Every structure is written in C-alpha cells, then in structure tokens.
C-alpha cells in the first residue's frame, strides 16, 4: 500500500479557527499558483496490506524543487511499471516532473520533464500546449502494457507519451480552449491485452473522452455537466476493472463515485447517433 499526498500550504491555521476561513488573495489569471507554495506533502509512505509502516520517501516540508532526488512534492498519482520493481509518480502538484522510484529500496531512479527534458521550476503561463515544461499539476502518469507512459499535463491541456525510460514519443492536445483546472485529469485503459481503448477523465469539461489508443483518434465522448446518473461534476479519477466496467470519482462538490457497466461491443455509428448508450464501440470509423 502506498500513500502520496497532494495538499499544499500545510500545516495551516488551526481547524475551526477564524484564520482557516480567511480568503487568500486571488492569483493572477494565468499564474502558476503552486510556484511559491510550501508543501507539507513532500513524501510517499509505504505500508503492508495490514497497515504496518514499512518505509518513507522524502520528509514533510522537505522538497527542494523539481531536481530533488530525496523528496517528492505533491504527488497526484502512483502507478507501478509493468515487469519492474519501479513505480512512477505524477509529481505533480508542486513539482513539474514525473519521477521513478524503486519500490524495494525506496531510492530515486530517474526523472524527466516535458518532452523528456530536465525538469524546471521556472514560472511559466498555463494553457500552453507547446510549453517547454510541465505545468501544475502533472496529474497522471499511466503506464501501458506495451512500454509507454501517458502523462497528464492538466493545465497545459495535453497528454505527453514517453517510453518507460523517459524517452519522449509524442503528444496530443485535449480540448485546447479549456481554461480553469485544465482538461486531462486521468487516464484508464480497456482491460484487453492490447488496451485498445483509452478513457480520459476531463474534469473541466465534465466528460469522458474515448480514444483509440494506437491511432490517438477520439472516437466519441460521454457525459455532461450535472448531478444526474451519467453526468459529472469535475470528474477527477477513472479506472477500469478486469470485466471492462468503468469507475469514476468526482471532486469538489461532485463527491461521488459512479460505475458504468460493460454491456458488450456495439458499432461506433450507433453510439454517435444516440442509438446505444454503451461506452464501448466495436471499432473506429464505423
């Protein structure tokens, strides 16, 4: 069991005190709001399945920035790299990088920033898909079965793809007109061995995008903003199980988990025309 935190400016005022509810000054519209925040969550904790503490990466308030090889800074997600004893952290809310650590020794292995370059903490504007560095947050780092890692650069509205060793492969942009909290929040893959379909949780646009993973062609999307079943309020996380069912979690005032049950494959034309409600097309371009 692994726990990573993503809480900024902690410890804060005493819970329940008047100071806790004092509004902070609003940041500039395109500012990197995490650039000067102090992160209590500069660590990852390792536990046994029964809750025994086994070890720690980093220490509270210990981060020295994106080049630090002893601490993390606001990890958004942890995923194990298939066939290895390493895991990758979307490192992420405070840093501008992905970092890889050995699960046995808890030692640093490697890191990289956007396009596979050395990470940088230089303040840059958000919503720039051509930005030379990751913004905040780097919100997902999801490895596929065929040696690739898909990284959600949320506020730069893009997903960058790398090999396991950090070699840059390509990127694509998701909903380039998005502002606010950005577009790609998290990624899940279909459970078939080829992982043919890629599901992208888009928190700001309140939907799930369905892509053909190999071609990176968007097949369609489902969901919309709202409170009813099948609608979303800031869909934040997404995962699939071995049966193909999809589970989503909503943040902010969404505060719920939804389950979408796999019902089999249907022609994509039926999904697009509204003749089927399933989230699993039988092939692209039908």
UniProtKB/TrEMBL annotation:
Disordered as annotated region, ranges: 1-28
Q: Is Repeat included in the keywords of this UniProt record?
A: yes
NHL repeat boundaries on the chain: 140-165
UniProt keyword list: Repeat
Kindly indicate whether the keyword Cytoplasm belongs to this entry: no
A GO BP term here is:
proteasome-mediated ubiquitin-dependent protein catabolic process
- Taxonomically, the superkingdom here is Bacteria
InterPro entries, alphabetically?
6-blade_b-propeller_TolB-like, NHL_repeat, TRIM-NHL_E3_ligases
In Gene Ontology terms, what is one molecular function of this protein? zinc ion binding
Skewed-composition ranges (Low complexity): 15-28
Q: Which PANTHER family does its entry note?
A: E3 UBIQUITIN-PROTEIN LIGASE NHLRC1-RELATED, PROTEIN LIN-41
Q: Can you say what this protein is called?
A: 6-bladed beta-propeller
Organism, scientific name: Candidatus Sulfuritelmatomonas gaucii
Its taxonomic path starts at:
Bacteria, Pseudomonadati, Acidobacteriota, Terriglobia, Terriglobales
């Amino acid at each position: 069991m692994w726990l990573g935190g993503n809480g900024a400016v902690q410890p804060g005022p005493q819970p329940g005190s008047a100071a806790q509810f004092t509004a902070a000054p609003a940041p500039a519209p395109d500012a990197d709001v995490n650039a000067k925040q102090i992160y209590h969550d500069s660590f990852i904790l390792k536990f046994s399945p029964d809750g025994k503490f086994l070890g720690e990466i980093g220490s509270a308030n210990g981060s020295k920035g994106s080049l630090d090889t002893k601490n993390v800074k606001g990890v958004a997600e942890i995923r194990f790299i298939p066939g290895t004893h390493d895991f990758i952290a979307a490192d992420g809310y405070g840093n501008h990088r992905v970092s890889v650590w050995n699960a046995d020794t808890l030692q640093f292995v490697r890191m990289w920033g956007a396009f596979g370059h050395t990470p940088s903490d230089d303040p840059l504007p958000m919503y720039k898909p051509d930005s030379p560095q990751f913004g905040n947050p780097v919100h997902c780092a999801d490895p596929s079965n065929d040696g690739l890692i898909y990284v959600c650069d949320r506020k730069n509205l893009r997903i960058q793809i790398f090999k396991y060793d950090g070699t840059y492969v390509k990127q694509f942009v998701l909903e380039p007109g998005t502002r606010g909290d950005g577009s790609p929040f998290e990624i899940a893959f279909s459970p078939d061995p080829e992982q043919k379909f890629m599901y992208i949780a888009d928190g700001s646009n309140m939907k799930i995008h369905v892509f053909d993973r190999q071609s990176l062609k968007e097949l369609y999307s489902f969901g919309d903003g709202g409170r009813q079943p099948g609608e979303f309020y800031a869909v934040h996380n997404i995962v699939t199980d071995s049966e193909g069912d999809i589970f989503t979690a909503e943040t902010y005032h969404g505060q719920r988990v939804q389950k979408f049950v796999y019902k089999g494959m249907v022609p994509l034309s039926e999904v697009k025309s509204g003749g089927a409600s399933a989230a699993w097309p039988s092939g692209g371009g039908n």
